[in-house]
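Human:
I keep going back and forth on a fold encoding question. Comparing notes only helps if you start from a blank page. Show me how you would write down a chain together with its backbone fold. Write it directly below this note and I will take it from there.

Assistant:
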Amino acid sequence: MTTIKICLPFVLVLAVGLSSIASSAVAAQTRPNIIFLLTDDQRDNTFGAMGHPFVKTPNVDRLLGQSVRFSNTYIAEPVCSPSRVSYLTGMHERVHGVGFTSSYQLTEAQWERTYPALLRKAGYHTGFIGKFGVEYYTFRGQVAEKFDFWWGHNGWTKFLPKDFKGPSCTPYHVAKEDVITPIMGEAMTKFLDELPGDKPFCLSVSFNVPHGSQTTSMYPDYPGWHNMTRPANENPKLRGSPFYDTLYRDIDIKIPAATGTDPYRFIPKFIMDQDKGRRTSTYTYDYTLPTCREHHVRYYQTITGLDHVIGKLLDDLQRRDLADNTVILFASDHGLLMGEYGMGGKAMLYDLASKIPCFIHDPNLPAQNRGRQIDELVSSLDVTRTILDYAGVSAPEFMEGASLRPLMEGKDVPWREELFLESLYTGRDTPFQEGIRLGKWKYIRMYDGKGRYDDPDVDFASRDPDFEMLFDLEADPAEMNNLIQSSADSEILVTLRKKCAAQSQSLNRRRRALKNAVEIRRR
């Protein structure tokens, strides 16, 4: 009797325990795997299936045919580091406070609210491959510990990374003659080889291309990155490559008509002096008549190379029987000006710099909902919320954006009518910028910037803009005609100014509330 009294509860507890473990295993199997593919400097409409006239991207095109494309997607911050922090945290730079020219860094407390940390805590096996791009503003040297699998680096790589050594993160271990994009494909294979098998996974892949530091380093005289006057395939290491040798060199690529013209007829010199580094420092933004065509050739060559690696990933998922339970999200960290307006580079609120390619592939979405294009206004912050939604993880306080799943599923849900835009990067004499997209209208206002800005510097409530722009995107999709002067007394301009100011101040309030709730640290 005594034995029975002792053992029966133990047996019941054991049975309940085994049942709980079995239920957890089933839950782990039913939760989808998640892959987030992020490119660098990629403009919207730069895949064949998006209507690009000559770029060859058969693998992404095939994936797009089974996905949902969001054709009006804007990046929260159109410059590298802050946009990446925004993807991680689901917040605007104004709220999370981390950027090239801000005074703050990402803290451990903030990291715990990022999508990789939240999914890892929820039982996902997490991995990161490629350009992290944030560690200079975080817990340096400790980023690899934040993931179960780490194959990342910070800053730039060489296109041919013969002697590459990561400045602060564990670098790739590469053969002497490897090209960086295929190496990332090998890392994805390694990640899939090492999956634990009893957990769903979340893999974040941050490609280095088609970023300018990659396309300029294709030329043999490294570190002579800036030589765009010579064809990259003079480099013997590129000879015979299906992507980086002669591809697109026999096409009559139409460079922008404004290439090499006066940029100050669009944005005055007093608000952005492009000779203060924007056209000449770090890596070239000087899209001149002698160089612009070569910029474009290399840019699209690397996109085709990227497509090849994505195709291998898709085949690998299929071969491993993972494709039917793996959600793939695709986006870029921002777009790029490539000679338009006589300018080059990023950190601007023009559509070419702030709109990005974005699509989501959900293999369990009904067939009638795939292959669609959705034109609603979407923010990159929505991507973060969508990742959490697929993982069944609640979004933490202060996270912005909205899950895109209801739109994908064809549900009749309320959606935003307007979208706030900002760029707080002030390097290369770039001004503070904020704006709003509402229907066919886009309004942008600029303020003289300040390097290493603090929170009060981005509170514009008591400041008049130094420069404004207004565009009718239906009549002028290329944003060539600033209507500010001709619309000075218009009702739409009054409305847009009020809406922009209201959202700007709302973000400032959210920033103050975050500082009261979470540890914030200066650099």
About this structure: The radius of gyration is 24 Å. The longest helix spans residues 2-30.
